[in-house]
Amino acid sequence: MIQPFTILAERFWPDVHGGVETRLFHMARELAQRGIVVNVLTERRSDAPPREELMPGLFVRRFARMDCGRLWRWRNLVRVQWWRRNLHDCLSDAGHIWATHPASALAVIALGHRDRLIYNPAACTAGMRHIFRVHPHITTMRMPHHLCVLDRLAYRLSHRTIVSSRNLARQFTCFYGVHDRPPAVLPLAARTADLAVLPNRSSARRRWNLPDDGLVLGYVGRLDPCKGIDVLLEAMASQPLRSTTRLLLVGEGPDEARLRTLVDQLHLSRHVIFTGRLDDPSHAYSAIDLLAMPSHYEAFGLAAVEAMAMGVPVLAPRGNDRDTLTAFDEIIEHERTGWLVDANHPAALATVIHALERAPGQCRLLGDNARRQMSQRSWRQYVSECLEMLTSSHDVGNTSTAPLASIAAHARSTAA
User: Which residues contact 70 (CB under 8 A, 6 or more apart)?
Assistant: First the structure.
């Protein structure tokens, strides 16, 4: 019999914030649909009730919001105690305990449940701190030293660690040392079942007055300096654009004001549309020809697989373990499901963008390949692989799922 799951989440539905919350929601829902009892423990950040059953077998308990008071600079240390206090009477029948934040992981360890803990960090804090050192203008990557210490302790002390990419696994071993159980790699998935019926392309473009015959680039996600959107804007401005070329920026975040100023300075106002945050970005994916993700740091890149599942190819930089820490080369097959550039630099992006202005049909061709690749990567498959890892008699730390791009390439060679 499969043990129940207890998921410790900083945020959970309906308090959606980003990729972490999206991943946890789909994972919890899929587990519950299999008849596995799932208890989500989280902080109450909205008007949602303290206790709720979202669907049969999926229960959510929301604890009173943490108050740091004068210790706000040390809020992550305070959070360890907050979790410890709230979890004290909740873990006796918890089954597998899935923690995505070092504070909740360390609280579980302190309460004596290390043997049931799966640490599933969304990012490596020391890796983010490294990006800030290389790119000092990316202040959102300026992680406090004590959080890096907590992250390292959670990784070193956890019974099992599962991460979303080989890129992230390398970060943990590089910055925190080799563990006796190396991180297992479990790539994320796309909402393939939810995307069976795609919005009409023409109607989606009319929503934002986009030309039917022009190249439309897109970005979907948080408007944050680490996402490199300024690099994309500089790439577009480096050569004259066709009058019908557009960039759809979907999202909100701390970098929005700076990006709007940069758009004006680069004389791109007629080409760039800010949509704000969209609860359902499917219309945006239907409207664009190409998703651009020029990130300096990306532990996985959930928006990339979502776009590919909707038939949109992706343009992104390869990680180089120096000034760019990304996993896109694990997701994208270069010139088959998207384009990979060796340097996250305006000139490299501009070469691809201006070539596609002349041959926009390439986007549709690669988009079809991308959709076929991602049709094999659903949340159902993700959960199946996760359960196999947890129930296997082998050391989960030595188990590693191949990158999505490698899986697709292997499938083609086998078919041939």
Answer: none
